[in-house]
């Protein structure tokens, strides 16, 4: 596989002629490149006016390779052919090099160019590209590739230092200016100091910045070079065409705004950026954003390109680029979403505080729906990107991620409400896919005993690199050494964490049920970032219950449910049958002759079935009033088919007078057409999965689950077993 390298534009803040004078000092040999042992001029041509000079040289390199490999190859030195074309009139030096040794087995090609900076004629630019294609090498192809890439990465980093070394040497000798070439300057005597770079023949062809792929630096491979040796694996991007000067990245810009990157990391960024410029139709992401995707895939070009393109498509589809301008948080979020930005940490990263323990996650999901909640989270991430750019300018160093502080004080089993957790997992999935490497550190404070349960559910969906950034403190451990003060200045620690800084993050509280969305609002929701909703709605009529069937293969599986009674009173039942119910008869309302607009109605239990023979009741009936929320679970004892049923609640007669109660009569009058409505969610956990989250299920019963003695004992035994582990 062909490995490629593309350098950023490296700038020498010296005139072209002076840089050429420093460049010539490296020959015939250079003590800074001990592996460059010899060179012979093969051909030399100079134009009549002296403005153009071409030199072809044969260079010998003593490659730092295992002795056994050299003996197998049968060579002591590796030879390269290099061709230089110096155009003094245009002020450019073009360099091409390729290997002569093993050219039928290994193909190395490198091009370099020195030129005048397009915006400052007293500065010099340098660019470099290279490729390595190992076709065969006595069965050591992988070894040779790793040696070549490691040494090349080391030599790239050393290149600019060598030119700077000779520039300083010239300055120490008092040579600070070399005149530009002119038609008459080539007649100056060679002894004149001013003719150093304009008249003296070129002595060397191997530029310091373009040591061939098997070159090595005197100090040996650095740690960065070792890391770089793996960066170009699995890279199959097509050859990148040269860009215009304004399209190119400057090395100083990279260091100032993107951070210290190794040479091959710079190459990955530049090449992916160019590929987007040439192929992507639409807005090109900022360099910081491209770099995040590369880091998320360890600078694997193909993998980074794939996830970046998917994210760009997603951003365009959902108009995410305009989210900060178009999104306005609903009032319920402003009042009950317990998160907000709060200054910055000691590294200058924006600090986001989330008081998760004070947040009514269920209320927010029920009041807002998933789409609105997701858009709010996306707006937080977009604001985080904006703040990172702002802090980069303020602090004068690259800041590409933020710190998140999560306070879990108040976290309890209500937060482990499974539909809410599932919504959280989907949000995490979207954020992980489209905002990689934006979280620099996550500080989790005052984690209660229930936290491991939540962590067990959530952690598999979080990228491994992200999980490594989590710091978890239980109780008040965060107040001591190694705690919060190590990452946040004492002056900005929020008051609710024992600090002196007032924090404007809302305190939260329970979202009033009056703000919950109705079933119709859920069903009429047009814009969705997810293709399905967690909840389903159902209409229930007198004589026409709504039923769903769940097939259980393994005994001891767990059926979990959560439902809200939106209208009317209902009775909830659970049945078991060894027989599979018939095909559902939707909207079968019998003599009612009416449909169920805005809701589903399915009946599964055949009229010919007999209770106790064809099917049996496994839970005591539960009467639920309008406006109630019910969560619960059932541990299955047998395989087969379990039927969950919601049916219309018939008014009970008063036991003493056989007359209906006043409250029941009034309730009946409020239910138009004997119609009820519920919104429900169910999920089945395997027995193994159930054991890992037993506590969450046990605490979510909300008074339901009046199980038989055997089932209750099963619940308790499995729960205690989980805790003991």
Task: Explain the layout of strands and helices.
Blueprint: E1 3-6, E2 10-12, H1 16-24, E3 36-46, E4 52-61, H2 67-73, E5 78-87, E6 92-99, E7 106-117, E8 120-134, H3 141-172, H4 223-228, H5 251-258, H6 263-279, H7 287-296, H8 301-317, H9 323-326, H10 331-336, E9 339-344, E10 350-354, H11 361-368, H12 370-395, E11 402-407, H13 418-434, E12 439-447, H14 451-458, H15 464-467, E13 470-474, H16 519-523, E14 536-541, E15 546-552, E16 558-567, E17 570-577, E18 585-586, E19 602-603, E20 616-617, E21 622-624, E22 629-635, E23 640-648, H17 662-670, E24 675-685, H18 687-692, H19 694-698, H20 709-724
Parallel strand pairs: 10-11, 11-12, 12-13
Antiparallel strand pairs: 1-8, 2-8, 3-4, 4-5, 5-6, 6-7, 7-8, 9-10, 14-24, 15-23, 16-22, 16-24, 17-20, 17-21, 17-23, 18-19
Helix pairs in contact: 1-3, 6-7, 7-8
């Amino acid at each position: 596989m062909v490995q490629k390298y593309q350098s950023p534009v490296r700038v020498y803040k010296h005139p072209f002629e002076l840089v050429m004078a420093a460049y010539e000092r490296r020959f015939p040999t250079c003590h800074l490149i001990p592996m460059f042992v010899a060179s012979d001029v093969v051909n030399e041509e100079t134009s009549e006016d002296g403005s153009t000079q071409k030199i072809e040289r044969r260079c010998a390199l003593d490659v730092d390779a295992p002795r056994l490999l050299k003996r197998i190859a049968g060579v002591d030195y590796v030879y390269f052919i290099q061709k230089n074309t110096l155009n003094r009139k245009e002020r450019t030096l073009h360099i091409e090099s390729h290997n002569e040794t093993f050219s039928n087995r290994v193909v190395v090609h490198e091009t370099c160019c020195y030129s005048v900076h397009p915006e400052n004629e007293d500065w010099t630019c340098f660019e470099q590209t290279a490729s390595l294609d190992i076709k065969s090498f006595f069965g050591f192809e992988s070894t040779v590739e790793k040696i070549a890439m490691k040494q090349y990465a080391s030599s790239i980093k050393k290149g600019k230092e060598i030119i700077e070394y000779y520039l300083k040497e010239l300055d120490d000798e008092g040579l600070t200016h070399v005149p530009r070439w002119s038609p008459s300057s080539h007649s100056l005597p060679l002894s004149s100091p001013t003719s150093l770079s304009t008249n003296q023949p070129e002595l060397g062809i191997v530029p310091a910045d373009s040591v061939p792929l098997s070159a090595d630096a005197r100090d040996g491979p650095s740690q960065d070079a070792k890391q770089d040796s793996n960066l170009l694996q699995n890279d199959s991007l097509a050859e990148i065409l040269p860009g215009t000067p304004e399209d190119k990245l400057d090395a100083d810009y990279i260091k100032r705004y993107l951070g210290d990157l190794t040479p091959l990391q710079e190459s990955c960024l530049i090449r992916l950026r160019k590929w987007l410029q040439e192929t992507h139709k639409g807005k090109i992401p900022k360099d910081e954003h491209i770099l995040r995707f590369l880091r998320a895939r360890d600078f694997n070009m193909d993998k980074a390109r794939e996830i970046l393109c998917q994210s760009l498509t997603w951003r365009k589809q959902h108009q995410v680029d305009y989210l900060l301008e178009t999104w306005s948080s609903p009032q319920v979020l402003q009042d009950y979403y317990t998160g907000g930005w709060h200054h910055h940490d000691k590294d200058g990263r924006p600090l986001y505080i989330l008081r998760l323990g004070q947040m009514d996650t269920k209320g927010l999901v029920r009041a807002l729906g998933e789409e609105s909640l997701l858009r709010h989270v996306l707006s937080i991430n977009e604001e985080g990107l904006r703040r990172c750019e702002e802090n980069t300018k303020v602090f004068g160093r690259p800041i590409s991620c933020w710190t998140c502080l999560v306070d879990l004080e108040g976290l309890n089993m209500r937060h482990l409400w499974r539909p809410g957790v599932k919504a959280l997992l989907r949000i995490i999935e979207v954020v992980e896919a489209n905002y990689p490497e934006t979280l620099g550190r996550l500080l989790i404070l005052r984690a209660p005993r229930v936290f491991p349960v939540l962590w067990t559910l959530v952690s598999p969906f979080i990228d491994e690199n992200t999980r490594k950034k989590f710091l978890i403190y239980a109780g008040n451990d965060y107040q001591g050494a190694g705690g919060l003060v190590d990452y946040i200045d004492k002056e900005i620690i929020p008051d609710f964490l024992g600090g002196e800084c007032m924090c404007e993050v809302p305190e939260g509280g329970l979202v009033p049920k009056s703000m919950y969305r109705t079933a119709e609002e859920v069903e009429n929701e047009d814009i969705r970032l997810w293709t399905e909703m967690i909840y389903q709605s159902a209409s229930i009529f007198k004589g026409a219950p709504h039923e769903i069937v769940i097939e259980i293969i393994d005994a001891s599986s767990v059926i979990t449910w959560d439902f809200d009674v939106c209208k009317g009173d209902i009775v909830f039942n659970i049945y078991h049958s060894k027989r599979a119910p018939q095909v559902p008869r939707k909207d079968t309302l019998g003599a009612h002759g009416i449909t169920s607009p805005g809701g589903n109605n399915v009946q599964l239990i055949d009229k010919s079935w007999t209770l106790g023979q064809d099917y049996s009741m496994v839970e005591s009936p539960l009467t639920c009033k309008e406006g109630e929320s019910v969560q619960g679970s059932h541990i299955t004892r047998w395989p087969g088919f379990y039927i969950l049923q919601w049916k219309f609640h018939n008014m009970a007669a008063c036991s003493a007078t056989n007359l209906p109660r006043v409250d029941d009569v009034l309730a009946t009058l409020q239910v138009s057409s004997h119609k009820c409505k519920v919104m429900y969610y169910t999920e089945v956990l395997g027995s193994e999965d159930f054991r890992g989250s037993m506590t969450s299920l046990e605490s979510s019963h909300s008074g339901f689950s009046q199980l038989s003695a055997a089932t209750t004992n099963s619940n308790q035994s499995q729960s205690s077993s989980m805790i003991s582990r």
